[in-house]
TrEMBL record:
Subunit structure: Heterodimer composed of CysD, the smaller subunit, and CysN.
Record domain Tr-type G: where: 28-246
Gene3D superfamilies reported for this sequence: P-loop containing nucleotide triphosphate hydrolases, Translation factors
GO molecular function, one term: GTP binding
The keyword Metal-binding belongs to this UniProt entry's keyword annotation: no
Entry's family note: Belongs to the TRAFAC class translation factor GTPase superfamily. Classic translation factor GTPase family. CysN/NodQ subfamily.
GO biological process: hydrogen sulfide biosynthetic process; sulfate assimilation
Record protein name field: Sulfate adenylyltransferase subunit 1
Keywords of this entry: ATP-binding, GTP-binding, Nucleotide-binding, Nucleotidyltransferase, Transferase
EC number: 2.7.7.4
Binding site for GTP: 37-44, 115-119, 175-178
Organism of provenance: Granulicella arctica
Role according to the record: With CysD forms the ATP sulfurylase (ATPS) that catalyzes the adenylation of sulfate producing adenosine 5'-phosphosulfate (APS) and diphosphate, the first enzymatic step in sulfur assimilation pathway. APS synthesis involves the formation of a high-energy phosphoric-sulfuric acid anhydride bond driven by GTP hydrolysis by CysN coupled to ATP hydrolysis by CysD.
Catalysed reactions, as listed in the record: sulfate + ATP + H(+) = adenosine 5'-phosphosulfate + diphosphate
Length: 554
């Protein structure tokens, strides 16, 4: 049994309860995680065990579970998956939300679980529920692995989606170790294959923990049956894994949700700051009109504010009468480089979630921030084979398939790449007739073939590689070949301010610093870099072409 102090009980939440909970606990350290597993991997049992052993479950709820249904299949053990059944029932009625949230806490941290079912629709819930997660727990059934001799395609897919969503930490909970003789060798076989996959995907923070959700080994309590395992329990891991640095940095974005006009004297725009900081007196630009004005007031229920940052919801009053309605956007004025992309043609990685395949020529509703447009599939660049991670050509994406898709919409989207900002780069695809969510899309950029792939380093002083450590590594390799002095900064957990300081120091020493962080245009300007390597669609380049396109001019 755990010795952790429970400071709040877990609740099955609706979106508004969730928001209230968030608001009330914003000050406290909070970790969001999601779980992904195939049917019967033991996801419900694991969550039930986690809640039970942290004493987060109401005693009466537990008693009811104990009394009513003891799972015979599990040999008379309490079936912890029943604790999450309430959630499933709510979801199956399907009225309010796609993903149910569960909260619990220990003395060290608060936790929010985006709970996802293990049916065929796992991908949908993973893609829609996981995009704000700090940690993805990928459940691997040790027994199924041993039978199959390798990771199941679903485990690969989950890990791939976690990498696509940019979830900073991915942990494999190697479950049912009680059915795998609690054997170190068995665990290490599974762990090594998982690590190999994670490496291929460029995941930076991965961990594997041998557990038995049913018996409670290494979930909250260290396993007696696996004394050879010296790492953290799953809870210890969740309590200590570094938290994401909030996406406050970057040029301001404020999608308008509602225009408030209570009387002739007041006109306010309500919405959520989706990126950066909004300050009274700031010069802002309205999209799509591109008209500029200043922020007169930032109003909230609790009174005016001088500034509001992501993810605060506020109402903005402007100095000038500007025509702005729901679905339009206020952004930081300033150089064009800091503005979002504005286009009716965009490319995105799509995770498809519907029985009826996504197909070239079909039109869907695309919901992006507060704006919904009609988007037609113009081309499918490729689909990903999750087993080999190779890219193949196709003209449709079946349920659970993942691919890069070019769209054309009836109205422009104002967006940033998902890699730079999750909120500004996410799109939900909806069937216009049934209103069902059919896909999740992570925006990459403009679908404009005139933007030829290139990596250009004007004077090899500094290279900023957009978001992908594997690309950063390739740029470094290319520079090494040229005999440049280059270092790669794995800056995932360094605050932005320190990245700049580190890069500066290296620049002064005449060294090329390559960072895997996306630095926004403002930060770049502050750095006064001599040269920037901009990577556009570099994934499409082979190494030869990458080398050839590195133009170093001294
Ligand atoms: N022996 C053993 N059985 C387990 C363990 N974890 C889960 N199970 C059993 O595996 C079966 C599936 O567990 P669930 O927790 O319902 O699996 P799930 O992944 O949530 O599946 P869905 O509910 O369909 O999403 C149940 O019979 C559990 O009792 C474990 O660590 N060891």
């Amino acid at each position: 049994m755990s010795t952790h102090v429970v400071t709040s009980h877990n609740v099955v939440g609706t979106v508004s309860e969730f928001d209230t909970f968030l608001d009330a606990h914003l000050e406290q350290e909070m970790l969001r995680f999601t779980t992904a597993g195939s049917v019967d991997d033991g996801k419900s049992t694991l969550i039930g065990r986690l809640l039970h052993d942290t004493k987060s479950v109401y005693e009466d709820q537990l008693a009811a579970v104990k009394q009513s249904r003891v799972n015979r299949a599990s040999g008379g053990h309490v079936d912890f998956s029943l604790l999450t059944d309430g959630l499933k029932a709510e979801r199956e009625q399907g009225i309010t939300i796609d993903v149910a949230y569960r909260y619990f806490s220990t003395s060290r941290r608060k936790f929010i679980i985006a709970d996802t079912p293990g049916h065929e629709q796992y991908t949908r819930n993973m893609a829609t529920g996981a995009s704000t997660a700090d940690v993805a727990i990928v459940l691997i059934d040790a027994k199924a692995f041993l039978k199959q001799g390798s990771l199941l395609p679903q485990s690969r897919r989950h890990t791939y989606i976690a990498s696509l969503l940019g979830i900073p930490h991915v942990v494999a909970a190697v479950n049912k170790m009680d059915l795998a003789e609690y054997s170190q060798k068995n665990f290490e076989t599974i762990r090594d294959e998982f690590y190999a996959l994670a490496k291929k995907l460029g995941l930076k923070s991965v961990e594997a923990i041998p557990v038995s959700a049913l018996e409670g080994d290494n979930v909250v309590t260290p396993s007696v049956a696996m004394p050879w395992y010296k790492g953290p329990t799953l809870l210890e891991y969740l309590e200590t894994v570094p938290l994401r640095v909030h996406e406050v940095a970057g040029p301001m974005r404020f999608p308008v949700q509602l225009v408030l006009r209570p009387d002739a004297n007041f006109r306010g725009f309500a919405g959520q700051v989706s990126r950066g900081i909004l300050r009274t007196g700031d010069r802002v630009m309205a999209l799509p009109s591109r008209r500029e004005t200043f922020v007169r007031n930032i109003v909230t229920y609790d009174g005016p504010l001088d500034a509001a940052a992501f993810p605060q919801s506020v109402t903005v009053e402007l100095e000038d009468e500007i025509d702005l309605s729901r679905g339009e956007m206020l952004v930081a004025a300033g150089s064009a480089a800091t503005h979002p992309q504005v286009s009716t043609r965009f490319r995105a990685m799509v995770v498809w979630m519907h029985e009826e395949p996504l197909a070239v020529g079909r039109t869907y509703l695309a919901k992006h921030t507060t704006r919904t447009v009609r988007a037609t599939v113009r081309a499918i660049q490729y689909k990903v084979d999750v087993s080999s991670l190779s890219e193949g050509s196709t003209d449709s994406l079946a349920m659970n398939e993942i691919g890069e898709v070019a769209f054309e919409s009836n109205l422009p989207l104002f967006f940033d790449a998902y890699q730079a900002n999750r909120m500004m780069g996410s799109v939900i695809l909806i069937d216009a007739v049934t209103n069902a969510t059919v896909g999740a899309a992570m925006l990459i950029g403009l679908a404009d073939t005139s933007q030829a792939p290139s990596i250009r380093i004007e004077r090899a002083t500094l290279a900023i590689v957009s978001g992908r450590s594997d690309l950063a590594a390739r740029v470094k390799d290319a520079l090494d070949v040229r005999g440049e002095r280059a270092v790669l900064i794995d800056d995932e957990f360094i605050p932005e301010s320190s990245v700049v300081a580190v890069v500066r120091a290296l620049q002064l020493a005449g060294v090329t610093a390559i960072t895997a962080r996306v630095l926004d245009a403002e930060t770049l300007a502050a750095l006064e870099v001599f040269a920037i390597a901009v990577v556009i669609q570099a994934d499409e380049l082979d190494d030869e072409a990458l080398l050839a396109s590195l133009e170093v001019q001294r």
